[in-house]
Amino acid sequence: QVQLVESGGGLVQAGGSWRLACAASGRTSSSYAMGWFRQAPGKEREFVAAISRSGGSIDYVDSVKGRFTISKDNAKNMMYLRMNSLKPEDTAVYYCAAKNGPVVSRRYHENDYWGQGTQVTVSS
């Protein structure tokens, strides 16, 4: 079992940058593949980014490629999402996810662990 807690949500102006963090406990984050999902009001939870258990493979949804960067600090049991050039459409509750396996699934229901979510609002 692993527990995940997101932090860093807030209000950001369009075009600005922000960083989210996910703290893992119970088991070290290096034991799991991890990733980020988001859910906007009235929409289904969608995949954003993932980093493999080894850290050697990274995947992004097309809409954030070139703008978002996922990273992992195994020594601190932390995962981060750096968000640049933010758009109003990025407004959502962002969730940290983990999976027992080499990679997080793009299908949210196939993942094993979730944080409580943190709200990111991008103003125009």
Features:
four-stranded antiparallel sheet; seven-stranded mixed sheet; mainly beta; 49% strand; single chain; 0% helix; 124 residues
Explain this structure:
There is one protein chain. The protein is an all-beta fold. It contains no helices and 11 strands. It has strands at 3-7, 10-13, 18-25, 33-39, 46-51, 58-60, 68-73, 78-83, 92-99, 113-114, 118-123. Strands 2, 4, 5, 6, 9, 10 and 11 form a 7-stranded mixed sheet that branches. The radius of gyration is 13 Å and the shape is globular.
Quaternary structure annotation: single chain
Shape: globular
Please count the beta strands (DSSP E, at least 2 residues each).
Answer: 11
Low-confidence stretches: none
- Give me the secondary-structure category: mainly beta
Gyration radius, rounded = 13 Å
Strand content: over 45%
Order of helices and strands: EEEEEEEEEEE
Kindly, what is the distance between the CA atoms of the first and last residues, rounded to a whole number of angstroms?
40 Å
Element layout with pairings:
Elements: E1 3-7, E2 10-13, E3 18-25, E4 33-39, E5 46-51, E6 58-60, E7 68-73, E8 78-83, E9 92-99, E10 113-114, E11 118-123
Parallel strand pairs: 2-11
Antiparallel strand pairs: 1-3, 3-8, 4-5, 4-9, 5-6, 7-8, 9-10, 9-11
